[in-house]
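can u do me a favor
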């Protein structure tokens, strides 16, 4: 059920963002590109928030199990959070370039 929900969500995103690739003269109705862009960055930010929460939870569990490994875990935490945030910023950049 979870995979079906994810598939439907991705298909919906693709259908909402297809007008972005249309020619300017061919579109006669309202442009759906801003709505697709807003949904795209919203989903990217939401999923990044979920990922950051899971990372923070895993770090808290790792520190509870082995407090002596704090420096190594902390470096991995900061790198992981930076990579997650950079993906959201790249998604925002792509959306601004395409809209």
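np, heres the sequence
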């Amino acid at each position: 059920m979870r995979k079906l929900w994810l598939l439907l969500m991705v298909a919906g995103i693709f259908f909402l963002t297809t007008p972005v690739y249309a020619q300017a003269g061919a579109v006669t109705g309202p442009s759906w590109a801003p709505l697709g862009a807003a949904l795209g960055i919203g989903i990217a930010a939401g999923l990044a928030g979920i990922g950051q929460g899971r990372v923070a939870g895993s770090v808290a569990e790792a520190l509870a199990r082995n407090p002596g490994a704090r420096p190594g875990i902390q470096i991995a935490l900061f790198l992981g959070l930076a990579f997650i945030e950079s993906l959201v910023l790249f998604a925002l950049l792509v959306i601004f370039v395409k809209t």
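Residues 33-65 form the longest helix (33 residues). hope that helps!!
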